[in-house]
């Protein structure tokens, strides 16, 4: 996969995950092209692997007293994908101090060509009070810093 350089609040230390997906028949439209909404399932799979790596998956989020709804999602479809195509989906922690922003890239599994770029933004909500937190809870900060310190950087 091509390496991209960008400014990150984590500096050069990035927390990432990568998964391989083969587009199943039921994800394609009658023309064999992947229906646009299914990409979000691929993002979710990669995001789940990333959150497990950090040690703060959805169950752990809830157990810590916070809900983390997605409040923004952006996607840029660069090329179409089709039934049976192998894809590599990469999730990268882009921001975590005030919100949880994850950047996604999907590449063709054979050629390495970029096919989709996206991001999701989640914010912490105190589960008991239902109040939005304007700064990420200490539990997330501690988990990310521990993962960085442990060297859980790349896939």
Please state the CA-atom Rg, rounded to the nearest Å: 16 Å
| Widest β-sheet, arrangement of strands | 1-4-5-6-3
How many strands, which pairing sense, and closed or not: the largest β-sheet?
A: 5 strands, antiparallel
- On the 0-100 scale, what is the average pLDDT? 91
Q: Into which percentage range does the β-strand content fall?
A: 25-35%
What is the β-strand count?
7
**How helix-rich are the residues, as a percent range?**
10-25%
N-to-C CA distance: 12 Å
Structural class: alpha+beta
| Principal-axes shape call | elongated
The helix/strand series, from N terminus to C terminus, equals EHHEEEEEEH
Count of separate DSSP helical elements = 3
Low-confidence sequence ranges: 1-12
How would you summarize what this structure contains?
With 155 residues, this protein is α+β, with helices and mostly antiparallel strands. The protein has helices spanning 39-54, 58-63, 138-150; strands spanning 16-22, 66-67, 70-77, 86-95, 100-108, 114-122, 125-126. The longest helix is centred in the first third of the chain and has 16 residues, at 39-54.
Could you describe the 3D structure shown?
The chain is an alpha+beta fold and 155 residues long. The protein contains three helices and seven strands. The chain has helices at residues 39-54, 58-63, 138-150, and strands at residues 16-22, 66-67, 70-77, 86-95, 100-108, 114-122, 125-126. The protein has a five-stranded antiparallel β-sheet with strand order 1-4-5-6-3. Strands 2-7 form a two-stranded antiparallel ribbon. Strand 5 and strand 6 (114-122) form a beta hairpin. The radius of gyration is 16 Å and the shape is elongated. Mean pLDDT is 91; it is low at 1-12.
């Amino acid at each position: 996969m091509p390496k991209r350089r960008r400014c990150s609040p984590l500096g050069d230390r990035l927390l990432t995950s990568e998964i391989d997906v083969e587009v199943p028949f039921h994800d394609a439209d009658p023309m064999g092209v992947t229906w646009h909404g299914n990409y979000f399932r691929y993002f979710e799979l990669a995001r789940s692997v990333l959150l497990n790596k950090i040690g703060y998956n959805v169950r752990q989020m809830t157990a810590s007293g916070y809900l983390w709804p997605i409040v923004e999602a952006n996607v840029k479809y660069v090329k179409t994908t089709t039934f049976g195509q192998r894809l590599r989906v990469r999730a990268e922690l882009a921001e975590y101090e005030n919100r949880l922003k994850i950047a996604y890239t999907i590449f063709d599994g054979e050629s390495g060509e970029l096919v989709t770029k996206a991001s999701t933004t989640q914010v912490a909500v105190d589960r008991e009070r239902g109040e939005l937190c304007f700064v990420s809870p200490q539990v997330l900060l501690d988990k990310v810093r521990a993962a960085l310190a442990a060297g859980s950087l790349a896939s």
